[in-house]
Design brief:
Length: 220
């Protein structure tokens, strides 16, 4: 268990750490706990982006999914895009596709569609992916920044497996909030889910954050 305290590592991201202690340290250093079970990580993950950290995350997923035969990475607009794009460098530059939330004249041809309830914005989005960008023979790695209730993953799985007839061969999440039901739900369906940091608790009053250790889950 790691707890936010006066701990302030000085390094940017230089060190090789066991698992993704690097990400945990960054969350402790720069993350902020907001009311409503929201962890704010804008300074390095989903507004300003630390691409060296993203590359380390991609390398870790490449190690964890080495035998999965990944042919394509799929993510969702907007926060997953940067992470997935950099991660592809660690997967022999496989194509990266992101599910779009806004209709655009640039997307021609037919699309797969689903509805996803947003955790942070509390609204339902129509999302879509051009049919030509997922093939039935694809073995897809889904990547996203957060896992909370699992709605984003359920929507992407519906597009990839039910609609495109491809295989979800792995799911890589940067930060799973382990006290919310998404992780359990997705693992119970048999998917190979690897979250690089699992937050077990976070307190908006004190800012305290605790992480699940790998020996406590078997899932890290
Ligand atoms: P879920 O669909 O699993 O309920 O939520 C996952 C999505 O909601 C992610 O794509 C992410 O963008 C957003 N999200 C969920 N929890 C958080 C959070 O604590 N902080 C931030 N910044 N985004 C979150």
């Amino acid at each position: 268990m790691r707890v936010k305290s006066k701990y302030r590592p000085r390094l940017w991201i230089e060190t090789e750490c066991e698992r993704m202690e690097l990400l945990e340290e960054r969350i402790l250093r720069d993350g902020a706990v907001r009311p409503g079970n929201v962890l704010k990580v804008d300074s390095f993950l989903n507004h300003q982006m630390d691409v060296a950290l993203f590359k380390a995350m991609g390398d870790e997923w490449a190690r964890l999914f080495a035998d999965a035969g990944i042919t394509r990475i799929v993510t969702i607009e907007a926060s997953g895009i940067g992470i997935a794009a950099v991660a592809a460098l660690s997967f022999h530059n496989v194509p990266v596709v992101y599910a779009k939330k806004t209709e655009s004249l640039n997307v021609d041809g037919e699309v797969y569609r689903t509805k996803i309830q947003s955790f942070t914005k509390k609204r339902i989005y129509d999302v879509f992916v051009g049919k030509k960008y997922i093939q039935p023979e694809d073995r897809v790695l889904i990547i996203d920044d957060f896992l909370a209730n699992g709605k984003a993953l359920e929507g992407l799985i519906s597009i990839i497996e039910e609609q495109a007839g491809a295989t979800v061969a792995g799911i890589g999440i940067a930060i799973e909030k382990g006290f919310q039901p998404g992780g359990r739900l997705i693992r119970s369906k048999g998917y190979h889910l690897e979250s690089l940091a699992i937050v077990d608790s976070m307190d908006p009053e004190t800012g305290a954050i605790t992480f699940r250790r790998s020996d406590e889950t078997g899932a890290l």
